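for the writeup, i need someone to sanity check this before i put it in the appendix. the sequnce is what the collaborator sent (i think, or maybe the updated version? ugh). structure was predicted straight from it, no edits. if anything looks off just tell me and ill rerun, i have time this weekend
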Amino acid sequence: MWDMLSFLFLACASAPRGLPATLIEQFKWRHTAVYDVYQLGLDKDQIHDHLAKTYLGDALTEAYILHFQTMVKMKEDETAIDVRQVDYSMVDFEARSINGVLLNVDWSVGGIVTHQKHKHTRVNRYQAGYTLQTDADGEWKIVHTRVHNAERIQRAFLSDDAFFEGEASGGAYLDPLDLLEGGLLEDAP
């Protein structure tokens, strides 16, 4: 009896009343898509339209400025980013307020960075709080971000040789096919 009551209590706590059960999956889908911006080039309208699928209001303006400035700097430095993997270790509902829904998120982004004709892997880990609101069409969008932590993790744990050989506990951060497609294994011994 108590096990059933505990289950019902926890089930209600994980899916607050009035929120769609798919909210977290919608967030992950929209948030992951942000990283596709680095494949667009410097077309301002295209970048803005792409980010508008995920952000709303001032958060859209902030994301646009951040990503556009980053992409201009990357072009000047002859740098490219090919994001291959976005993994979420945690997306938790924190609260509902008059400002929207608050989520706590912990995720990592892995990819291949090319600069000055040299390629290497890069995996970064982030922790942030997101506020989401619905837009005029009822779609959940990010309206505020507070980053709690950002760190490069791949280089801290593995040498490039160990990374390419998949010596991390549980395997490498990126699939070997991603490394091959990105041209990283061509130069490997």
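The longest helix spans residues 58-76. The chain is about 35% helix and 35% strand.
thx in advance!!
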